[in-house]
Write a structure and sequence with these properties.
Strand content: 5-15%
Number of strands: 9
Bound molecules: adenosine-5'-diphosphate, magnesium ion
CATH architecture of the largest domain: Orthogonal Bundle
Distance between the termini: 56 Å
Number of helices: 12
CATH class of the largest domain: Mainly Alpha
Helix content: 55-70%
Radius of gyration: 30 Å
Shape: elongated
Number of domains: 3
Largest sheet: 5 strands, mixed
Strand order of the largest sheet: 4-6-7-9-8
Amino acid sequence: MIESLLLNFLFLLFPVLLFLIFFENKLHTYNKNILILLSSISMVLCMAFPIKLEIGFIFDLRFVPFIIVALFGGYKYTIPLYMVLNIYRTMIGGAGILQSFLFSTIIFMLVPLLSKWFLRQNARKRILWAVLVSIFTMVFYLTSLAAQLPVLDNEFWILTFNALPTYTLVMVIIMILIEKIIDNINTLKSSIQSERFNVLSDLSASVSHEIRNPLTVTNGFLQLLNQSKTLTADEKTYIEYALLELKRAENIVSDFLAFAKPQSENMIYSNLKEETEYVKNIITPYANMHQVDLHYTFTNSLSFKYDKNQIQQCLINLYKNGIEAMKEKGGVLTIDVSEQKKDIVIKIEDNGVGMTKEQVLQLGNPYYSTKKEGTGLGMLMVYSTINKINGKILVDSEIGRGTSFIISIPV
Ligand code: ADP
Ligand code: MG
């Protein structure tokens, strides 16, 4: 009994282990179908080598991977497991095929319902709920078994006292491992990202400053030259072009400067009211041009310390993206600044073109842009600024429906 129990436990560990070894450092690039395949294999192995009790009853842990996939993946990912389970069960044959089919169908229909809600919980709650669901499933299974038995003899109770604790314990262990892996992946991801921002901000600060001075000097001399009376018309045009291009270079440099570390002369302690209003005012002509209405509400009373220029630039980038997303059909850009407990919450919502899940994941990657004349630096700047003030950005987007950015800043 102990041996077959350990063997089953090994089958369940197998997908977790393989995932750890091969995919943990690949972050989000691995194929989700591999996880489905691994879970299916572990489920089939559990069924092929069930735990045999001395009294003759057998049970297996097939519902551990099944429930985990149902909770994390929802219907879409549970369907293949559901099919594998029933096909394999039919191949094994013997009594109880119909019961097994009905039972797995009920679990298949009910458990994935929880998935969306489950994914929003924190790690502890997820462990707790996965365990509760598996206890509930087991109790349900045992009750339906009891209903078929003429009398509840000793054997039934032996099965109960073996199966129930085993399911619970195994579920606890597997879920703790899974949550630990998720936690490691998240830590790795955020440390890579903040490393990237650090490099970017150091580099852009030094380079931009160094380039800006020669640009200013060149600009000055060109303007002096431009006033000379001996210039031909052609020469004057060349100088005009040179000046225009210099202006462009200066703009790019100041965009990059926005990535730099906050500058002490720009630091203020305030509640964002001035900045959000200022940015709303300067963006209004741009919105009108694209038939976009701005709805602005401000109810925040919390203050914190921030770099005024960077926050303004960050808001401009977000507003501009929202407006650009609606430029085909017009729409409404809603800006709402409020407080929630000890967080300032900035919500920027548009009803424009929206993004797919993959596109949302790309946000903030340097040079990622889907626009003809886009730079792909806007969102990078937004993420780097919000990261510097320890804020969090939540993106909710749907193709054709629009996008909402919810930024919460702890004070
Ligand atoms: P750019 O605006 O120059 O393209 P950004 O970094 O500002 O660069 O944005 C990157 C990409 O993210 C955009 O090209 C667009 O595809 C997408 N994006 C950003 N904000 C939105 C939004 N509100 N709605 C739809 N797509 C958006
Ligand atoms: Mg942009």
